[in-house]
Specification:
There is one protein chain. By secondary structure, the protein is α/β, with parallel strands linked by helices. The protein folds into three domains: 82 residues, Arc Repressor Mutant, subunit A (Orthogonal Bundle); 87 residues, Periplasmic binding protein-like II (D-Maltodextrin-Binding Protein, domain 2); 110 residues, Periplasmic binding protein-like II (D-Maltodextrin-Binding Protein, domain 2). It contains twelve helices and twelve strands. It has a five-stranded mixed sheet with strand order 4-3-5-12-6. A five-stranded mixed sheet has the order 9-8-10-7-11. The chain has a two-stranded antiparallel ribbon with strand order 1-2. Strand 8, helix 9 and strand 9 form a beta-alpha-beta unit. It is elongated, with a radius of gyration of 24 Å.
Length: 312
């Protein structure tokens, strides 16, 4: 096979087919007829010597070769898009568009209000469509359906671009009426009931098991490293809910410091440093290679980084 045998349109066809996994929907997405798309699939199969998509009881599924080709095809198309894209600055002040971003409610509470103030000042017609981690998948980000995601990740696909937004320590929130306020130490911490709050990555979450220490995250892993375990009474994925629960006199909430400081002026709670060492967490921003060179995307990423730097 030589370059003269490759029709760039076929790579566009392949990208959409692997995204939609349906010939009819792929044709509609590209605005062509179904016979034209079927012909394109036949040519792709001849080109790569592989069926690429096969029919199963669950619909069309990509072959192993197709899954291997998919990120490479996207990289090629992204490079072509960059080469033909007009070189011009993004005029934020005049822009009227939507950025679709996914954030945890930790990020939503700590970063988003400050970001919105900057947007209202510098780009008043920009709209944010904020999605939760459970709303999306890695595929949504990879395909550019979601512009970027801000969260704490254990693992990210290698094709993603990423940058650190900030690092955060941990703090403990207690009710002002909690009996251990005047005797807060490791022993009284462990004797108390706790609120677990956490949600990393993307996709729908699953139920938690109190005894599964190694899967509970930073706080419980830090306790495990010193041979201790806390008594978790509430599991929640929502930081705002966890912070409200801190007002109950018999619960402790251990959460990132930037979230805890949102209640610094609340007379019903007090903030303590944890009575044991917990490693810092890293908040990251990640996005698809398909939007890496888009001027509008570059602008919003710079703005978010600048807002985060000032908050840090």
């Amino acid at each position: 096979m030589t370059m003269r045998n490759i029709d760039l349109n076929l790579l566009v066809f392949l990208d959409v087919l692997l995204k939609e996994r349906n010939v009819t929907r792929a044709a509609e997405s590209l605005g062509i007829s179904q016979p034209a798309m079927s012909n394109g699939l036949r040519r792709l199969r001849d080109l790569f010597g592989d069926p690429l998509l096969v029919r199963t009881s669950d619909g069309m599924k990509p072959t192993e070769r197709a899954e291997m080709l998919q990120p490479m095809v996207r990289d090629v198309l992204a490079s072509v898009e960059k080469a033909v894209e007009p070189s011009q600055e993004f005029d934020a002040a005049a822009a009227d568009r939507v950025f679709r971003i996914s954030v945890s409610d930790y990020t939503e509470s700590t970063l988003l209000p400050h970001l919105m103030r900057r947007l209202r000042s510098e780009a008043p017609n920009i709209t944010l469509d904020v999605l939760t981690p459970s709303d999306i998948s890695y595929q949504d980000v990879e395909q550019g359906t979601v512009d970027l995601v801000i969260n704490r990740f254990d693992v990210l696909p290698q094709s993603f671009h990423q940058m650190t937004v900030w690092r955060d320590t941990f703090s403990c929130l207690l009710s002002h009426h909690n009996p251990i306020v005047n005797n807060f130490n490791l022993d009284s911490y462990l004797d108390s009931g706790h609120v677990w709050v956490n949600k990393t990555g993307m996709g729908v979450g699953v139920g938690m098991e109190p005894g599964a220490t190694k899967t509970l995250g930073w706080v419980d892993e830090a306790l495990f490293s010193i041979g201790k375990q806390r008594r978790i009474r509430v599991f929640t994925r929502h930081y705002q809910a966890a912070m409200r629960l801190a007002e109950l006199r018999d619960l402790i909430v251990t959460l990132p410091t930037k979230a805890a400081r949102l209640l610094a002026d609340n007379p019903n709670v007090v903030i303590f440093d944890p009575p044991f060492s917990i490693p810092e967490i890293e908040l990251k921003m990640a996005w698809s290679p398909l939007v890496q060179h888009n001027p509008a995307h570059q602008w919003i990423r710079r703005l978010i980084a600048d807002v985060a730097k000032k908050l840090d």
